[in-house]
Amino acid sequence: MPASTTTLHPISPPVEGLPATSSGSAMAPLELLLKYDRPVPRYTSYPTAAAFSAAVGADAMDRQLATPANAPLSLYVHVPFCRHACWYCGCNRITTQLGSTVVAPYLRALGRELELISARMPQRRRLAQLHWGGGTPNYLNNSELTQLWELIAQHFDLEPDLEASIEVNPELVDREQIQTLRRLGFNRISFGIQDADPQVQAAVNRVVPVDQLRRVMGWIREVDFRSVNVDLICGLPLQTPERFQTTLELVRELRPDRISLFSFAYLPEQLPMQRQITAADLPDQRQRLTMLENANRLLLRCGYDAIGMDHYALSTDSLAIAARQGSLHRNFQGYTTGGELELLGVGPTAISQFRHLLAQNHRDLKSYYQALEQGELPVERGLEVRDQEVLERRALIQALMCQFAVNLPLAEFQTELADLQALAADGLLQLEQRNGRLEVNVTREGRWLIRTIAAVFDPLQRLQASGSRLV
Ligand SMILES: C[S@@+](CC[C@H](N)C(=O)[O-])C[C@H]1O[C@@H](n2cnc3c(N)ncnc32)[C@H](O)[C@@H]1O
Ligand code: SF4
User: Fold this and answer.
1) Residue 291: inside a domain, yes or no?
2) What is the best residue among 7, 190, 232, 262 to mutate for testing ligand 1's pocket, by most ligand atoms within 8 Å of CB?
């Protein structure tokens, strides 16, 4: 997923009145989803990337890295290249057939970025989490994948229980590559299915036959990854509830540990490639909702827990367990189980996330290379967060998104109260006032609208809605 904008997503800790079982969440009735369908941020950070400014750049990152710290880190590595363009794609990617010709300079640049980072840190740091996203990380051949892994190991100590995950395009992958990834140390893998129906695949210029998808899952299972995720998109051209059933049946058969069920973000104004899609072919909102509802019903019946709005995990998977135990966390990569780790992002558009600093690298590959050639960290924009009130809002939004419950001092949240009461009247929240405090519990139906609920606590959203639509 794009590291910058569209990152992805959870269940709850035991909340009074809600059984913390694997039964998952009931979906909000269609009418409610339609009623609340407006653009809202995904809250992979607060404040969101929309608040970043060019006034915060490499200097701020220099200072941050120079701050002594000992805790293990999470590292995100962006690999922007793709062999061909899928027309729906909103990720930050570069379509090229040049292979190693573009990869070699890219690996040199990543090496340079890692050197600059290490040089600024007072001590060598450990990595507890590593994620390669894109674009298409498996655009790299086996030797390049190995080089990149070794590059990272030169700069960081990899913890013995490192959680290492990678996104792969199933069209490009073969058995040997899967074996290489596992041997290097990746223990989590994700691949995009999007839709299994040949007509839908043709309409978005991403044709991966079902047999290849089955083979890929078979190769992954042979080498025992800890967890396998698949991506699906709901709302693609020519999708209908009947056709989408083919995709759902395939998912039932493949039984991945996790499923990301994205709602298609159709933004042809901002993403020119999406103009290749015939708008008249897009399913309407009701069809989309029916597909989401069908998916939700089937997945819950098959042993998955609903983890927030667009993620599912087998109830035995660590994400579902963390959700039940109330130990989920959320960062630019979406929901994670690793606690509140500082996140370092390398590669174009990658975002680094510290308590007091959010910083994003240059989007444009040329500018990214230029900064590195000048010996500078390639930060394009960012945000420093020092204001106590903003930090408190962040903690609140984080608790809502991950624990689905907050307890508020009533006197300080009078502005929000009317909105919360309206959401409660629609069955999305349970409110209880006691001793000057307001206990807010998100209902199972409310979890589908968790972004809308979180937005109540975001003053910027009260002024101007922004983000992506819910359905
Ligand atoms: C970086 S890609 C995954 C790895 C690999 N490139 C692939 O395509 O299989 C991230 C995921 O973002 C999702 N995605 C991309 N564009 C989207 C859009 N416009 N709306 C919703 N989801 C989108 C797709 O499900 C895609 O698999
Ligand atoms: S391969 Fe993945 S990142 Fe590349 S265009 Fe397709 S969906 Fe986007």
Assistant:
1) yes
2) 262
3-state helix, strand, coil in the chain (%, to 5): 40, 25, 35
pTM as predicted: 0.90
* pLDDT score of 471: 59
428 occurs within a structural domain: no
Phi, psi (rounded to 5 degrees) for 296 = -60, -45
Q: Quote the number of domains for the chain.
A: 1
Condensed to tens digits (0 to 9), the pLDDT of residues 16-35 reads 222 233 334 556 667 788 88
Token pair recorded at residue 434: 């006691």
**Predicted pLDDT of residue 14:** 27
What pLDDT is recorded for position 466?
A: 53
Of the bound ligands, which one is closest to the alpha carbon of residue 81?
2
62 is a domain residue: yes
* Residues of the chain below pLDDT 50: 1-24
Question: How many whole angstroms from 94 Cα to the centroid of ligand 2?
Answer: 9
CA–CA dist 48, 50 (Å, integer):
5
Provide the domain limits for residue 174: 30-345
Pocket flag, ligand 1, residue 167 (CB < 6 Å): yes
Determine if ligand 2 sits within 6 Å of the CB of residue 135: yes
User: Which ligand is located closest to the Cα atom of residue 170?
Assistant: 1
Q: Residue 34's pLDDT is what?
A: 81
CA 80 to chain centre: 16
CATH number at residue 180: 3.80.30.20
CA distance 245 to 133: 28
Query: DSSP characters for 438-450?
Result: EEEEE-TTGGGGH
168: number of CA atoms within 13 Å, CB side? Answer: 29
Amino acid at 27: M
Based on the number of CB atoms within 10 Å of its own CB, is 99 exposed (0-12), middle (13-18) or buried (19 or more)?
middle
pLDDT of residue 464: 58
Provide the pLDDT for residue 468: 60
